[in-house]
UniProtKB/TrEMBL annotation:
Belongs to the NADH:flavin oxidoreductase/NADH oxidase family. This is 12-oxophytodienoate reductase 11. Residues 166-193 are annotated as: Disordered. The keyword Metal-binding does not apply. Residues 168-185 have a biased composition (Polar residues).
Amino acid sequence: MSLVMHQNAIKLKELENSMQGNNKGYRKQAINTRQWVPRHKCTNIFRAHDCSWNVQDESLLAMNAMSKPFHNLFHTYKKRRMGNFNLSHRIVLPPLFRARSYNGVPQPHTVLYYSQRATKGGLLIAEATAISPTSQNHLNAPSIWSREQIEAWKLVVDAVHDKGDFNPTGQAPISSTNKPLTTNKGHGMEPRPLKTDEISHIVNDFRIAARNAMEAGFDGVEIHGAHGFLIDQFLKDQVNVRTDKYGGSLENRCRFALEVVGVVVEEIGADRVGIRLSPFSDYNECIDSNPQALGLYMAKSLNQHGVLYCHMVEPRWDISGENKESPYTLAPMKKAFRGTFIVAGGYDREEGNKVVAENKADLVAYGRLFLANPDLPKRFAVDAPLNKYNRDTFYTFDPVVGYTDYPFLEGSA
């Protein structure tokens, strides 16, 4: 599950000073945690607020539009009504795992990280978040099933709003299948397939997590159905080899995902629910033989639940960071889905503006660029140079380096 935030202005100097100045006694040893990824489940959560750019920001945008020959700059800065949320621009922070939530609990540096990336009327989607003790799939990934975790998330949410907007514990990791990742043999335990009568309990875990997200103050929930997590494993026919009602046909393979959507909608309302899907991705060896049919079926089925948005990863996306050639596009899914359609996967400033201008997307998510540029919307607005990201620091435990120390444009912080 990923948690969604829409922002509204916290004074961050004290927090920044405590993080940066007192770093020596606070920082933990930086260790790269990109290890075996168990086939498990998580959710993302989002955040939003009814706001708009202030006068200074609008003047800055207007000045840039007059002084630069960039074609239709304002498309990514056009306001967008998304359900009950008024977005002041179309630039979205997608869920990015950062391995800084020690023991599953968001930390003070988590508050700073998300606050740095908050803009008035913007949309932030928090990183994949474990929904139960059995769903922890990464060391130091955040969770939202305990009182301590919920209270910690409240601090993150409040900071964003104020500014404007498993590691296995002896249990076998659960999956749709018992197929291990061939690329990671020797790392972790072989997963076991969920028993049919266990699936309803997992579905209910999503319901409870959504309820907890509302208690923490999030504006909504993004169900994580992408990149080899549990829902994606059910969706893809090269991984899902089940013979019960959750395997075989396209309808059966999508059953689990839609059951999760159904209970989350029932719990918190369709206007607070989004889902992330990657039908074309082969990440973590989750592959489908007909990804376009899968994407279309899900897009049309989601309409029946009236969810707020569908967030899809481009067919060209590759974990390497380089876009690959693909005969597919997301256009059929965009056309089929009735809600807000968010695209992600290798976009830069010009491409993002272009897909919005051509009505191929309503919003555009920028992962690595937003990670390395906390003031990305402003940099895009003035066509400023971008900080380069450092992949070596993506998944370390360090609360500062590669996390909260990327510089702002002068006067942006």
